[in-house]
Amino acid sequence: MLTVGLIYLALITAAYLALSRCNRPKTVESLQVAARSLRMLLPLLVAIFGLVGLFQEFLTPEQVQQTMGAANGLVSLLLGGLLGAISIGPPLAAYPLAGSMLDAGAWPPAVAAFIVSWISVGIVTLPFEASVFSLRFALLRNGVNFGLALLIGLLLGFFL
Amino acid sequence: MNREKRFGIWSLIRSQWLLLFAISLYLWAFAAAPQRAWHALQTGGTLFASVLLLIAAVFGLVGLLQVWISRDLIVRLLGREGGIKGLLLAALCGTLLIGPAYLIFPLLMSLHRQGARWAVIVIVLSSYAVKLQMLPIEIEFLGWPFSLGRSLLTVLLAIPAGLLIEAMMPKTPARGTWDAERGNL
Predict the structure, then answer these.
(1) Largest CB tally within 10 Å, which of A44, A121, B10, B26?
(2) Are A132 and B106 in contact, with CB atoms under 8 Å apart?
(3) Closest chain B residue to A103, measured at CA
(4) How much is the CA Rg of chain B, to the nearest whole Å?
């Protein structure tokens, strides 16, 4: 993981150096935006990695396989989708959680459904969405996106 | 002003609930099995440390995209393009925009009032589940086939989902250009 991080960091640094030659103030602003976004997300990242630690320590692979394993089929797919729908958060937070599910032997389609609905289905934000667009739109969109999350999971199962 | 305040509360709840949840779980874990709780904390900490560099690098890219491809530019592009090009553009914008989805609800609604199709709004929100700039992190945790397959499927299926919802929404042409643009498809 360290090498990937270093390579990526080198690439981004090169991009910053190149851009600072053509527009210095804008590049400085980019760096400020980057630092601000990271700082805002830090408490959440601490929470996520804390949860991943608990997950790996207290949930046995057998338990994960029983609830979200391939043998459980459509139930685990639905469970993954629902788990994602009730929680909202940035994609960055979903990846480590999804990673530990996969490691513990969860069915990949269920994990994919979890990630997609984590980001694009929001039960908590549904009232707000209805007040901005309309109740009809909010229900339709969340419903369709939930179905889509399950479909993406299933299709990914064939693909993998 | 009122809107700002509302977002503040929303984002506060969003960023706090998980941390509070994690802390209370740890308190419970330390009370029940201190040794295992300590081990969990170490596991999480080690994992965090190992990806911190990658996360920092990705956020460098996030900053660049945010400043060089401004939100105003995205709004201008999405409002203007109506046909298939607009739908593809919406999918691309959804994968690049950063921040909680609910933060862009008002922005998208104002786009719709200015004449953007419902499909465009839905496609942005559906393809939101993919973050191109975060892909290296996703691959790190979930592997190449899973990450690329999931991202590709999400973007491809966002467009039919957008058209499906648009077909189910009452047709209220916001402007004269609306119908002309629909005819383009």
Answers:
(1) A121
(2) yes
(3) B142
(4) 21
Flag whether residue A157 sits within 8 Å of chain B, measured between CB atoms: no
Task: Determine, for residues B58 and A53 on separate chains, whether the beta-carbon distance falls below 8 Å.
Answer: no
First-to-last CA distance in chain A? 23
Task: Give B92-121 pLDDT, tens digit per residue.
Answer: 989 988 777 777 888 888 888 877 889 999
State mean pLDDT over B164-172: 87
Which residues from chain B sit within 8 angstroms of residue A34, using beta carbons?
59-64
Task: Report pLDDT for B6.
Answer: 60
Can you tell me the distance from the alpha carbon of B124 to that of B126, in angstroms, rounded to the nearest whole number?
6
Q: Two tokens at A154?
A: 């299933």
For residue B163, give every residue at least 6 positions away whose Cβ sits within 8 Å of its Cβ, in sequence order, or none: B87, B119
A 66-105 residues inside an 8 A Cβ radius of B: 87-93, 95-96, 98-99, 102
Using an 8 Å CB-CB cutoff, list chain B residues near A151.
157
Residues 6+ apart with CB under 8 A from A80: A68, A106, A107, A109, A110, A111, A112, A113, A114, A117, A153
Residue B8 pLDDT more than 90?
Answer: no
Q: In this predicted complex, what is the ipTM?
A: 0.85
